[in-house]
């Protein structure tokens, strides 16, 4: 479906996180190693990052594959940040929204990505729209499931929920309305990373006190990568990572079996 990644740590060029590792997000756009659904993520990409002293992130998004954007490598060479969220996209359904449908979505200090698909979209989530402010529905950035899931998360954030509560409650709500959905969500405010596993893979690499990377799959063969169990909420900062089991709706599809781990060399 998609691959995404969030990084918190010392300022680095975007390319050092997204392009240079042996199995970086760039390579995952055509050769993911652990993706359960889909094989090529060529329906758009995006990266969001934070500049020092500015809480509102910048974004760069395109409708085509990351490898076809000859300008991105140059941008990634010189732009530096200590907080990044990026994604490469495999669209569930083709549409006309182009780069507007590519993560990360953004509002205020937040960047958001959804790896997965809502079962029965759009009809399955129609009942949830009534709970959203009309202006949020009318101003959806794109006409896809990820944009509506983001609207549900954002409504909770604006209502006072913290990041972990907003993601956890949205996952349960969507899973109840659309059983069988895959809902790996990723959110950052530039200081923390919050994520869920619900139907696809998620890993993290932590150097306590220095950096944390949360990603759909490892971007290299560092043995310190840790896999996050399915149906889990992850809350991370530069100093620690906390994992909490997610509530299981009574009508939810059982977790998919874990993929066998690749041998280390």
UniProtKB/TrEMBL annotation:
Residues 2-265 form the Glutamine amidotransferase type-2 domain. Pathway: Amino-acid biosynthesis; ergothioneine biosynthesis. PROSITE patterns: GATASE_TYPE_2. Signal peptide: none annotated. It catalyses: gamma-L-glutamyl-hercynylcysteine S-oxide + H2O = S-(hercyn-2-yl)-L-cysteine S-oxide + L-glutamate. Residues 252-265 have a biased composition (Pro residues). Keywords: Glutamine amidotransferase, Hydrolase. InterPro entries: EgtC, EgtC-like, EgtC_Actinobacteria, Gamma-glu_amide_hydrolase, GATase_2_dom, Ntn_hydrolases_N. Residues 243-265 are annotated as: Disordered. Its EC number is 3.5.1.118. It comes from the Bacteria. Catalyzes the hydrolysis of the gamma-glutamyl amide bond of hercynyl-gamma-L-glutamyl-L-cysteine sulfoxide to produce hercynylcysteine sulfoxide, a step in the biosynthesis pathway of ergothioneine. This is Gamma-glutamyl-hercynylcysteine sulfoxide hydrolase.
């Amino acid at each position: 479906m998609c691959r995404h990644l969030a990084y918190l740590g010392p300022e680095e060029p975007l390319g050092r996180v997204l392009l240079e590792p042996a199995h970086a997000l760039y390579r995952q756009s055509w050769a993911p190693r652990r993706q359960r659904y889909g094989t090529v993520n060529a329906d758009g990409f995006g990266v969001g990052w934070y500049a020092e002293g500015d809480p509102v992130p910048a974004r760069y998004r395109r409708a085509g594959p990351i490898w076809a954007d000859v300008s991105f490598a140059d941008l990634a060479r010189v732009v530096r940040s200590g907080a990044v969220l990026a994604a490469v996209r495999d669209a569930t359904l083709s549409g006309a929204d182009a780069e507007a449908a590519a993560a990360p979505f953004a509002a205020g200090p937040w960047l958001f990505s959804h790896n997965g698909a809502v079962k029965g979209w759009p009809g399955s989530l129609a009942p949830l729209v009534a709970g959203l402010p009309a202006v949020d529905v009318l101003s959806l950035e794109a006409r896809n499931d990820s944009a509506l899931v983001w609207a549900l998360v954002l409504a909770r954030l604006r209502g006072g929920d913290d990041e972990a509560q907003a993601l956890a409650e949205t996952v349960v709500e969507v899973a109840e309305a659309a059983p069988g959905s895959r809902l790996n969500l990723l959110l950052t405010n530039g200081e923390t990373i919050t994520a869920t596993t619900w139907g696809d893979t998620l890993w993290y690499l932590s150097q306590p006190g220095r950096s944390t990377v949360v990603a759909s799959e490892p971007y290299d063969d560092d043995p310190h990568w840790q896999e996050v169990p399915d149906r889990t909420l992850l809350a991370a900062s530069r100093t620690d990572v906390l994992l909490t089991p997610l509530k299981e709706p009574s009508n939810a599809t059982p977790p998919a079996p874990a993929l066998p781990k690749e041998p280390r060399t």
